[in-house]
Amino acid sequence: CRGCRRLEHLLIEGNANMERTVGKPETLWTRRAFGRLLGGLAWGACHANGLTAGEHSRWRPNYVLASSMYGQLPLAEILPEVRKTGATEIDLWPPVHGDQRKAIDELGLEAFAELLARAEVGLAGTTRFDLGPFGLAEEIDMVARLGGHTIVTAFFPGDAVPRGVAGQAARKAVGQFVERMKPTAAQAAEAGVTVAIENHSHGLICSPDSIRYLVELAPEAGLGLALAPYHLPQEPELLARLIAHAGDKLALFYAWQYGQGCLREMPKEEELQQLPGRGPLDFGPLMAALRTIDFAGPFEIFMHPVPRGIPILPTVAETTAEINRARAYLEELPA
């Protein structure tokens, strides 16, 4: 199944990481920690999402939990929730949305790896808008050493590219960005990591055309797209076409719609309309497109609360339950 293929990749990558680090002072994985983590991932690959014998051929999302869904709560409170949401990996966010990324710096790599292993949770990667796409060298190395595979960021060029640039001017701007990213993409590819550029309002990659140019011009490995439907026209067929066009350059998918937005205070029931099954967006065509390309990358049920840095609902239990409500909606869509 798709989960087993992901596990096979992790086994190969993890063994390579061990071979590179054995005997060095900076060795990350102990064999005990590495074994526990892979044992947990093996369980998650075929069981956390309810897979049983005979169901392995059915496509299912590779759920990853965004730590920011729990605001700035401690990582120790969030890790036990990962498997409860159907996920096996976590995406760590820094302030202001979350602050769980700080745990790596506070604990050190080996202690952090042990923490993940005890929880039977893998690190999917980190979200680093604060570093930008050209400041990721150390982050790539850190994510790779922890067995992660994805770093999400965005590019906000300011006056370098006027807002609303389109057509051939947009293609030229995206081409220049991809050219500047080649050293970072090469480092990421060598480490087994993908830098995923989110389509973000006011970013260079923000429109359907700029998304198409990114996936057409990006190198074969190391650089991809984090697709956020929230920041695009809420048209299911358009979003499905973008997914199909992205193909294997789609590095992360946010199950996230616009709903009523996330830039002003509003009643919680309106704010939650960013989530699948709450707002008006029909995720059926999007899920069908993801199934068609056999998307195996991180799939995050996602929203932003107002203000940033708080859980999407007051308690850990309520937040987990709401993520699972969205997951149930997605999984009940026609196969």
What does this structure look like?
Helix content is 44%, strand content 12%. By secondary structure, it is an alpha/beta fold. The protein has an 8-stranded parallel barrel with strand order 1-2-3-4-5-6-7-8, surrounded by 5 helices. It starts with a helix and ends with a helix. 48% of the residues are buried. Residues 1-27 and 29-56 have low confidence and may be disordered.
Summarize the structure.
With 335 residues, the protein is of the alpha/beta class.
Task: Looking at this protein, list some descriptive labels.
disordered N terminus, 8 strands, alpha/beta, 44% helix, 12 helices, 335 residues
**How many alpha or pi helices?**
12
Q: Distance N terminus to C terminus? A: 16 Å
Task: Kindly estimate the percentage of residues that lie in beta strands according to DSSP.
Answer: 5-15%
What is the percent of helical residues?
Answer: 40-55%
- One letter per element, helices H and strands E, the order comes to HHEHEHHEHEHEHEHEHHEH
- Indicate the low-confidence ranges by residue numbers: 1-27, 29-56
- Characterize the largest beta sheet: strand count, sense, and whether it forms a barrel: 8 strands, parallel, barrel
What spatial form do the alpha-carbon principal axes imply?
globular
What's the structural blueprint in terms of helices and strands?
Layout: H1 2-21, H2 31-48, E1 62-66, H3 75-82, E2 89-92, H4 102-107, H5 109-119, E3 122-127, H6 137-145, E4 150-153, H7 167-191, E5 194-198, H8 208-217, E6 223-227, H9 236-246, E7 250-255, H10 268-271, H11 284-292, E8 298-301, H12 316-331
Parallel strand pairs: 1-2, 1-8, 2-3, 3-4, 4-5, 5-6, 6-7, 7-8
